[in-house]
Amino acid sequence: MKPEWVERELLDFGVYIKNEPTTSSRTLANLFSAESVTRLLEAEKKAMYAPNLAVAASMFSKRYAYLAVSSTLYMMTLYDGVYQFPPAACVFREDRKIELDDSLCSLVQVEGERHEWRERVVHALFTQCVTPLLDVLHLTSRLPYAILWENVAVRINSLYRNMMREAEDPVVKQRVQEDYLFLKQAAGDVFGVKQNPFQRGLNLDDSLLKTSNRRTCCMYYQLEKKSENLDYCLVCPLEKKKGTAC
Questions:
Q1: If you placed Cys at 85, which of 22, 89, 139, 169 could pair as Cys (CB 3.0 to 4.6 Å)?
Q2: What is each CA distance from 58 to 61, 93, 106, 150, in whole angstroms?
Q3: What gap in Å lies between CA 132 and CA 32, rounded to an integer?
Q4: What's the pTM?
């Protein structure tokens, strides 16, 4: 039986646990197909008023990083446990949230040496559920990998900055910092790539409280209708007029 905190924390990230088998074709496993992800991006483009598939892919990757990556890392760091899911269990809903098939998922809690457990958790998350998706998004939209990976990095920066601000226990603060540094310094094969894709994108200072602008532009400013009351994303590298978000 899952601890009470699992479903509560997942809901905070827009992740729902479904207690019956999924029948949707919008599973993460299906999105590894260029044909399927193109259909999804066409729908996202229309829904978000994006000018092209590259912008739609960028916005989609940012959203997915929040839903799947942030939620998993949050539980890993604060609870020493993750609700691990295979690609076939994850459905991207039309309301831009995800649903997880409970019968295919498992709660994986820390056992043995924590640093070894942490590496296994991060490796499973990225090699099964993140890197393959970024690969097909790059293939279908031609959006550069640099933008896709920095979209994920921005979510990680925000997550760990908030956790550091909210943590009161010194032990928790230390774990937040150690996990962030691990993500920044781990070998590339932990993420299923040759080199660590976060060496530059994870740019919080030693206190984890200050960050600089992005190196790449996520192209949020190109959306015709924006969901937030901003002309640019909060860490946009582009030069902006006085009075806009920076």
A1: 89
A2: 5, 17, 29, 10
A3: 7
A4: 0.93
